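Researcher: We're teaching a course module on how sequence relates to structure. For the next exercise, students receive a sequence and then see the predicted structure as tokens, so they can try to spot secondary structure elements on their own. Here is the exercise chain.
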Amino acid sequence: QVQLVESGGGLVQPGGSLRLSCAASGSILRVYAMGWYRQAPGKQRELVAGIINAGLTNYADSVKGRFTISADNAKRTVYLQMNSLKPEDTAVYYCNADLSTISRRSEYWGQGTQVTVSS
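Model: And here is the predicted structure for the students to work with:
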């Protein structure tokens, strides 16, 4: 059984910062990639940022220069530092992991954490 547990969401004013964390636990053999997605009301879920095991990262154009993704491989944890937040960043943020267990390689999702940017 694999679990992704997210934390760090909340309410912040425009221009503020938040840091999201996502820890993977369970019978994990290897983590290939982790990332953050978000879904705003009435919109499709979109990739925000991703990081692969080698440390390479990619970002949505809308967050480049403001968000930074990082990972602690030993802790199987991924972070998303979000700076200069805008109201349009308001969404539920989901952690995603591509990893393998004894039985198979698969994709897993966290339960989501709400980020609200508002004055």
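Model: If you want an answer key for the exercise: The chain is about 0% helix and 60% strand. The radius of gyration is 14 Å.
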